[in-house]
TrEMBL record:
One of its GO terms (molecular function) is hydroxypyruvate reductase (NADH) activity. Its EC number is 1.1.1.79, 1.1.1.81. Residues 5-319 form the D-isomer specific 2-hydroxyacid dehydrogenase catalytic domain. This is Glyoxylate/hydroxypyruvate reductase B. Homodimer. Catalyzes the NADPH-dependent reduction of glyoxylate and hydroxypyruvate into glycolate and glycerate, respectively. It comes from [Pantoea] beijingensis. The keyword rRNA-binding does not apply. CDD domains: GDH (cd05301). Coiled coil: none annotated. PANTHER family: 2-HYDROXYACID DEHYDROGENASE-RELATED, GLYOXYLATE_HYDROXYPYRUVATE REDUCTASE B.
Amino acid sequence: MKPSVVLYKSLPDDLRKRLDEHFTVTEIDGLTPENMAKYADAFNSAEGLLGSGGKVDGEFLAKTPRLKAASTVSVGYDNFDVDALNQRGVLLMHTPTVLTETVADTMMALVLASARRVVEVAERVKAGEWTESIGPAWFGIDVHHKKLGILGMGRIGLALAQRAHLGFGMPILYNARKHHEEAESRFDARYCDLDTLLKESDFLCISLPLTRETHHLIGAEQLAKMKPSAVLVNAGRGAVIDEQALIAALQKGTLHAAGLDVFETEPLPADSPLLTLPNVVALPHIGSATHETRYGMARDAVDNLIAALNGNVEKNCVNPQLLK
Ligand SMILES: NC(=O)C1=CN([C@@H]2O[C@H](COP(=O)(O)OP(=O)(O)OC[C@H]3O[C@@H](n4cnc5c(N)ncnc54)[C@H](OP(=O)(O)O)[C@@H]3O)[C@@H](O)[C@H]2O)C=CC1
Ligand SMILES: O=CC(=O)O
């Protein structure tokens, strides 16, 4: 008998077919409380899970007693309680690497859009405001050769450093928990502590995971250390920044602009002040959202679940210690 799996994100037809070849699949439209109740039997018998979003914690695991592996269509896994998964011996699979270059492109787009006011100015053109030769009120700030600070020099941070340093001639500063030899040798990146990163960066780009340590790592005190001319870009997770403190800094003008792909609450609530600030570029969490990359992520997530439930995991496992 094929193992049972709950699928909570729709897949391209060919990938769904591949999943069906290996598993008995129950497809639902998200890990909502309503679906947990409605499909209680499917969760009760599920050995595998595949999807993205939704909280998977101890309470969830109590409803999935046979679960052996969860496969998330994302690299970030802050919505999973990894300690609880470990206690139960449930493998967690994710999709690093396949999305790295695309997310770095998005970050560079946020750097450029925020500095050159691309969205704001394009909207003014559409509104019919371009009626004469433009003056300083429409100008932006330069990107090339400015100092780019990267907070989180992992896969995405490294790909961003490549673009910024080789493409835009930007000196790179970075902070992470450890030094990154490749960033230093290929892109001349300079390791520094967080305070130095905040004080020296013209553009501060965050590509951190959300963890207990990174939650609100950037608050009022840290924002106050940044140059008033600096631009903050966040494509890690919204809660790495204290959003209220960020709004205050942008409103006071102690921070020049922000380019944000992630927010503390997603979708961004309609009454968020971030939506009314002209110096904010707000994107709907599109870091990896290209047809090619989203397909690649879904394909990897399917392969990851097949490997995990067949006992032949070689990569993309968050808790590989369970394999021993
Ligand atoms: N906006 C979007 O659509 C997307 C967002 N993301 C987000 O980007 C994150 C990063 O992805 P990726 O680059 O692949 O992940 P990696 O694991 O490769 O990189 C994470 C980096 O963060 C650093 N880090 C972790 N904790 C701390 C800390 N407390 N202080 C300083 N540095 C820290 C790590 O440091 P060290 O190297 O020293 O261990 C590492 O350099 C994901 O977890 C996800 O949240 C990812 C994809 C798309
Ligand atoms: O935010 C997206 C991810 O893959 O993580």
